Amino acid sequence: MWESVDDNPVFRDLALTYHSSAAVIMIRVSPMPRQKGLAIRFEAQGLILLVAIFFTLLLVGKTQEPRTSRVIDAPLWKLDVRSLGYTPWNVRESGETPVTLSQVSFISDAELAITFVSHIVPEALPRRSEPESANLRLNALFIDSKSGRVRGRNEWPTTSERSRITPAGRGGFLVVTPDKLILTSSGIQPDKELGLPIGREALQGWWDAVPSPKGKYLMIWYDAGPQGSIRKWELVDVDNLLIARAFTEPHLGMSPRAPFDDGTVLATDWEGTVVARLGDVIGAPPDGPWRPDKAPWGACRPDRGVTLIDDQTILGTGDIMFPQHRWCHTLAQTNGELIFRQEFPEKEQIELDAGLGGVAVSAGGERFAVAVYKTRGGSILLDIGSGRSIDRIMLYDLTVRRWTYTLDAKKHGLKSLSGVALSPDGSLLALIDQQGTLQLYGVP
């Protein structure tokens, strides 16, 4: 809100008041001679028109504040998965790289999967040539989404705490470890396996796997070479479980971010400003062609990360440094259409690491959920870190283009998260809280 009065003798009685909350502009002119009054009226009308045009241009396509959304009520059921051996993602191995695959995922609308890595005690003393990571096991709990009962469990050897399983469509799933991928279409018996060089070549902890929106492709990147001097990418065709494309180092200054379901790859420059696709069709040369895509980021460049909602919709997450540091979202389509741009208050942060909530997307691409954390305290000058806790989870519906649900963390006793997921049809929201309790909510 601002108010100003011009001290010019001609306009000494002219008061201009702007109220941002109601978008109201009022002009008050004191009685004056006819000719001067007429001039003042024309001046006032012109001023009103200019101000109206200015604020219209300012607001159109800039920031979409969340409309009133429905509050998510009590969970449908809860399950203590910590008592079943679950341990949350250990952030000490993450370095500066978030984990994309969550520890909770929907294999189908009817089944949930909870994954975690456990350490086993060797029967004999390990050899010097055997790293401690050789004693890791990837565990999976399969849970009925209707009743909350455990249907079964399985485990696989792994060499990294980043290992996960991810949905593969049609009720199947893909086991992701640095040494191999295991495709299971039904039950728990594997159908196919594909060996990977990550376990041998990658620096420990510096690798990640990013699925396409519907899980048809999986892009794996890792840092190899002396001190991680070379970054490599492997694009996997999940249905056929084969390497569709492999490449090293970004081309033309572009860095691959995530695969589309048509086999092309979303890429941006290092600042997240320019967006392009790598490879129009599978089988194209590893170094191209690049096909530029349009993305109206504006001031909210996705330098923090990008998430594919579907093959036409991109969610970019970044931060604005001026006039104060704020996180922001931009939801746009690859044809250049801006759906919304939203800025968050200074003390709020969007979490991208799936081990702390991340961005959950329904396999149908109609809904996505974001975890918003609120920071408190801390001082850069005194080198004191700030604390933070989960504030809310917001759910966006692309079919109606607005935020439709909000889960209040304080109301539900949530302080932190170790996983968030949406069912393929987007009607169920699952999360794991700080106590290791799996909670399922209905969001019809």
Explain what the structure shows:
This protein is mainly beta and 444 residues long. The chain has a domain at 2-59. The chain is built from 2 helices and 33 strands. The chain has helices at 34-59, 198-201; strands at 2-5, 15-19, 24-28, 70-71, 77-80, 104-108, 111-119, 136-144, 150-158, 164-169, 172-176, 180-184, 192-195, 207-211, 217-224, 230-237, 242-248, 254-259, 265-269, 275-278, 290-293, 305-310, 313-320, 326-333, 338-343, 348-350, 359-361, 367-376, 387-397, 402-408, 417-422, 428-433, 437-442. A hairpin with a 2-residue loop joins strand 22 and strand 23.
Give a quick rundown of the structure:
This protein has helices spanning 34-59, 198-201; strands at 2-5, 15-19, 24-28, 70-71, 77-80, 104-108, 111-119, 136-144, 150-158, 164-169, 172-176, 180-184, 192-195, 207-211, 217-224, 230-237, 242-248, 254-259, 265-269, 275-278, 290-293, 305-310, 313-320, 326-333, 338-343, 348-350, 359-361, 367-376, 387-397, 402-408, 417-422, 428-433, 437-442. With 444 residues, the protein is mainly beta.
